[in-house]
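#onboarding

Welcome to the new folks! Below is a worked example of what a typical request in this channel looks like: someone posts a single protein sequence, and someone else replies with the predicted structure as tokens. Don't worry about understanding the tokens yet, we'll cover that in week two.

Example request:
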Amino acid sequence: MHGPPLVAWLLVVLSAAAAVWCILRREARSEALLGTGMAVMAVPLSVFEPPRWGTAALVVVFGTVALHALRPSGRPMSHRMHHLLCAGAMVYMSAAMASAGSAHTGHAAHAGAGAPLLTGLLLVYFAGYVLHTGTRLAIPALPPPAALTAPLPPGGAIRLRHAPEVAAACRVAMALAMFAMLLTL
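Example response:
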């Protein structure tokens, strides 16, 4: 990160937590891969200096995730396009860091590594996504009063893990981390 190491570590924790939650959801394997990649890219260089081939590996992995998002599936087109933009942004950041001489977002000498217009457009998209989706999560419909006092039914934790709100919160966390990483580019 181009700032205090505390911010970089917070991004590592946020991205890793989102990746773990996506793994637990099982149907979000590619989102888990993006979260893991974001966590790796956010580790400060003072702790981990990635090998030179690391950037190429990240570009290939994130490019594969982007291609996976393009294939038809049962998911809505808006979800697939968001996924494509996330993977594309990760390819862009990895390639920008490679062209600047580092596979990491953590080195201050590489400020301004990306194309300012593309970086700005991605920043606007992820800020808008966080605000739009986060607002919808923050103002939920009120549940019926009986649901507030009823005990969790057997298997309720499993249903909670697969709740659409949990998936949206995971995507908001990853979009927020993506926004912070793009700010350092």
